[in-house]
């Protein structure tokens, strides 16, 4: 049996890079309980530092391609300071995509160890409702009564003892799932009784040999729908001291219909890391052709917000993409990258 794990930074944890301590519940499952469960492989598909609405929807395709028997879906603990909350239709889309691939989603609801129990975290009720409507397993971890939390947790993340506790609670929920494919098939029948979620996640092909560092991008968009179509543009990028502020503009003919300034740089950009960057979040309000323009702003990031002191910042700023941009919408939009340099 194979297990895939879809979640943010708590599900990303494995072994601390300095102390070599096992810190992640997935690593504990892998090392201590795989044989007990009859599991041959556990693979993580995580979007640490990001949200279900961006990195989660993009990585979902990789989970489906991996074809695990079970997907542990851990959706509550994510960085609410960036991106946006997932919509109900997007949550249903995650479950439906897994079920249609005959993968059993198991909803894993974790608490904030020094804050709220899972039941008080936003969107808990939506995940519970979907899981119950579809007849899916739920594993809700309750740490009430645990002592010495500082030895077990670091903020929302786990130390070894916390990871072991989470893993033991997960094992209790997984041991009874002896036929995940039958359960997935039965859940799919129930899920199809509800409105089928329409979410379109479309990677946009880039020119051959695309630049590794860019300062501007243009995307042609066409809507054939008479109704407004909200959409987001997300791209996996390295972000760091070089990350800029962007000027964004959506044009319809010669008329700007939306504009915004966006800082890709954030207070943690004193070191380089991968992130799913939300580049645009707007609406095609009517049928027709549009152009989305992204280019560096003359504004500089607010370096006073940096979490680490730094004597100087680079003069040359740029974007450093590591993958093609992805368009997320709720009806099909024709789109192509026309400028990428």
Characterization of the model:
The chain is of the alpha+beta class and 341 residues long. It folds into two domains: 2-191, SGNH hydrolase (Rossmann fold), CATH 3.40.50; 200-340, Jelly Rolls (Sandwich), CATH 2.60.120. The chain contains eight helices and 17 strands. The strands form four sheets. It has a five-stranded parallel β-sheet with strand order 2-1-3-4-5, sandwiched between helices. Helix 5 links the parallel strand 4 and strand 5 (138-140). Helix 2 (25-37) runs parallel beside helix 7 (160-174) and helix 3 (52-66) packs parallel to helix 4 (88-100). The radius of gyration is 21 Å and the shape is globular. The mean pLDDT is 95.
């Amino acid at each position: 049996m194979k297990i895939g794990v879809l979640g943010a930074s708590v599900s990303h944890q494995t072994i601390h890079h300095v102390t070599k301590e096992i810190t992640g519940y997935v690593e504990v499952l892998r090392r201590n309980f795989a044989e007990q469960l009859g599991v041959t492989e556990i693979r993580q598909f995580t979007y640490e530092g990001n949200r279900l609405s961006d990195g989660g929807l993009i990585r979902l395709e990789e989970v489906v391609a991996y074809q695990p028997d079970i997907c542990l879906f851990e959706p509550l603990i994510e960085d609410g300071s960036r991106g946006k909350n997932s919509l109900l239709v997007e949550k249903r889309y995650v479950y439906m995509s897994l079920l249609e691939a005959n993968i059993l989603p198991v909803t894993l609801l974790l608490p904030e160890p020094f804050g709220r129990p899972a039941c008080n975290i936003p969107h808990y009720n939506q995940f519970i409702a979907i899981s119950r409507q579809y007849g899916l397993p739920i594993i809700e971890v309750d740490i009430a009564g645990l002592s010495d939390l500082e030895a077990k947790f670091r903020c929302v993340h786990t130390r070894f003892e916390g990871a072991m506790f989470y893993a033991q609670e997960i094992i209790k929920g997984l041991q009874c799932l002896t036929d995940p494919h039958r359960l997935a098939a039965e859940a799919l029948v129930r899920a199809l009784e509800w409105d089928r979620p329409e979410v379109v996640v479309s990677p946009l092909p880039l020119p051959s040999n695309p630049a590794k560092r860019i300062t501007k991008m243009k995307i042609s968009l066409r809507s054939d729908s008479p109704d407004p179509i909200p959409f987001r543009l997300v791209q996996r990028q390295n972000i760091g001291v070089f990350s800029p502020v962007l000027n964004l503009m959506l044009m319809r003919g010669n008329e700007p219909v939306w504009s915004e300034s966006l800082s890709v740089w954030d207070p943690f950009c004193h070191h380089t890391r991968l992130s799913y960057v939300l580049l645009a979040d707007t609406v095609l309000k009517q049928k027709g052709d549009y152009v989305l323009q992204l280019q560096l702003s003359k504004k500089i990031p607010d370096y006073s917000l940096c979490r680490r002191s730094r004597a100087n910042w680079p003069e040359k700023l740029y974007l450093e993409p590591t993958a093609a941009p992805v368009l997320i919408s709720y009806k099909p939009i024709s789109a192509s990258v026309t400028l990428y340099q």
